[in-house]
């Protein structure tokens, strides 16, 4: 084998090595990008689940508070009705009516 043939083979080997390094670099970049995309997708998925859970809890809490408020209003209305039935004198009736009016203004 002559010196020129050896140099040509070395150059070919260097070219193949350079191509291999370039492909490896591209593969590495692709793997990194894919991993980033997967990580972003996982985080977004976790955030979506967390937000849905939180929305569900908020809705349940609001419904419970609304039910409790409605129950309190109903109890207060019953109590006011009972007090109004007890009111026999005009003076007492006026005081009760005034209290009822203030109650409804507070609601």
Describe what you observe in this structure.
By secondary structure, the chain is mainly α. It has one domain (3-106). It has two helices and no strands. It has helices at 3-86, 90-106. The mean pLDDT is 88.
Question: What is the H-and-E element order?
Answer: HH
Helical/strand content category: mainly alpha
The tally of helices reads 2
Largest sheet: none
SSE blueprint:
Elements: H1 3-86, H2 90-106
The gist of it:
The chain is an all-alpha fold. The chain is built from two helices and no strands.
Brief descriptors of the model:
2 helices; rod-shaped; 0% strand; 107 residues; single chain; mainly alpha
